[in-house]
Amino acid sequence: MSYEQPDVQTYSWGSDTTFGATGVTHYIVGPKGKVGFVREVMVDVTTSLVGTTTVPEIDVGISSGDYTFGRYRLGTSASVGYAVGPHSASQEAITGNPPRTLADFTGHVVLDGGPLTSSGIAGGSYGTQLPAGRIPASGWAVTNVISGTSGVCRVYLNGMLPAKDLTVGQSVTVQGVLGATGATGVQKISAIDTSGAFAWIELSGTTFGGTYTSGGDVYLNVVVTCLAGTGGTPTGGGYVRVKVQWIGSENP
Fold it and tell me: Is residue 2 part of a domain?
């Protein structure tokens, strides 16, 4: 097996001009078979951020509002938001290398998720994610889809213990399934095989139909939440960018 140089990608979504008042959610789907680490969160604030109880923040995790993989709270304190201008998580007065954190107030900055060979950091809000802080590799081939609990889609995945690093409530994208209906699209995991094989996942809110014939892949969605502030009259927004380093075997 050969390994390539780490693949660093920066994801951006244009201007979210009002996320300080009304939260916005984005998705990242990483390269097949590679684990990821959040290395940077940057925000070019175009309208001053306000939240007198909690300031707006950028969360990178397994579902909306979760910060298992990274966090950047956008203020000089928990209740005083940043003014107009560029702000970068890695340029704060962080400690550790890696993981890099800043706790002048709770959760101000959390980056990295620990080295590749570590068990990560206990910085996320989902303590069952293993290893905490690291974005699991994804891109599993579907081998079957059947009716699961209460008629939802139960999706079987190819590989050794394919669902072992996944968590109930996690967001995934299912694509390319032929024959069976109901599974395709952005979904949330409602159950995971607990037999020890970790062979299947069930998809919340789906309705199984048809008969599976072939095809399909499942990818983990990294959920980026531009979280609104609370207290007073929350406001503000700007351009958000998240830099992720992907590491793993070389894929053609």
Answer: no
Bridging pattern class, strands 200-203 and 185-192: antiparallel
Helix, strand, coil % in the chain, rounded to nearest 5: 0, 50, 50
Please state, in angstroms and rounded to a whole number, the distance separating the CA atoms of residues 135 and 119. 12
Residues 32-54 have pLDDT tens digits of: 888 899 999 999 999 999 999 99
Torsional sign, CA 38, 222, 44, 232: negative
Based on the fold, state whether residues 146 and 200 are members of the same structural domain: yes
What's the confidence (pLDDT) of residue 250?
Answer: 59
Domain residues for the domain of 30 are 7-135+223-248
Is it true that the peptide bond before 131 is cis, omega within 30 degrees of 0? Answer: yes
Q: Is the domain of 72 the same as that of 124? A: yes
Which residue ranges in the chain fall short of pLDDT 50?
Answer: 1, 114-128, 251-252
- State residue 128's pLDDT score: 47
How close are the terminal C-alpha atoms of the chain, in Å?
A: 12
For residue 73, the cross-strand partners are: 57
How far apart are the C-alpha atoms of 47 and 16, rounded to whole Å?
Answer: 10
Residue 68 domain-assigned (yes or no): yes
pLDDT of residue 131: 59
CA dist 143 to 11, 71, 125, 165, 215, Å? 31, 35, 32, 19, 7
Per-residue pLDDT reduced to its tens digit, 134-169: 888 889 999 999 999 999 999 999 988 888 878 888
